[in-house]
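Input record (Table S2, row 220):
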Amino acid sequence: MSDTITFALPKGRIMKDSMELFARIGITCPEMSDDSRKLVFENREDRLRFMAVRATDVPTYVEYGCADIGVVGKDTLLEQGKDLYEPLDLKFGYCRLVVAEPKELQRMDDPANWSNIRVATKYPNITERYFAARGVQVELIKLYGSIELAPLVGLAERIVDLVSTGATLRENGMVEVDTIADITTRLIVNRASLKTKHQRIRKIIEGLEQVVGETVRISG
Ligand SMILES: Nc1ncnc2c1ncn2[C@@H]1O[C@H](COP(=O)(O)OP(=O)(O)OP(=O)(O)O)[C@@H](O)[C@H]1O
Ligand SMILES: O=P(O)(O)OC[C@H]1O[C@H](OP(=O)(O)OP(=O)(O)O)[C@H](O)[C@@H]1O
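Output record (adenosine-5'-triphosphate complex):
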């Protein structure tokens, strides 16, 4: 059995910080670059392989064992609810998942009092759970980006989306109503790999743990 460790890394904003973090524990891939169209990169000498995948696809590659280890936002994990081992908060990619509305509404009231509203989001499962827990009936509109546009053109009354600096909400005349979750980037591990490649994976988790300053109990 191959003891190569395969990483699923998200293309996009998390990639650079992920590579920098791994480099701090000696995990590097000299041939990898974020402007390449190549999707799989090998570091044969160190028995490492890196795959560049869409952020939302990282959990799928790890769940099916095509990657042993993945790096992904907590938002994606909450939305997809897959059975993955999540040993470490990597403490970057800080943002918040919020409910927001156009500032003209100026309601800023409790979402539990809303009824029959349309909510646009990339996160239908999280949004459904949030409103269901408050007994509020909503119509979910699944979008794939530029969520803040939806209320401006009457597609939805509210949105559930990520906020970091707040610039996107502000520039589109929206305000936060409630925070659903604080989000950071997480390390995820395939449960079978944790057993079959235990030594190598444990070393990686412990190395990262030291770098990010968190204590982890590794099972399996
Ligand atoms: N504005 C932001 N500031 C900080 N972190 C963010 C921000 N937006 C998203 N993130 C985090 O980065 C992760 C990846 O976001 P990115 O925009 O690179 O991919 P995506 O476009 O959401 O995913 P996909 O390409 O699969 O549609 C998100 O899941 C989230 O955890
Ligand atoms: O609070 P801010 O710092 O403005 O960041 C928040 C924005 O960042 C993300 O969008 P992204 O840039 O990924 O584009 P998208 O709308 O295409 O998903 C998120 O969906 C918000 O729109």
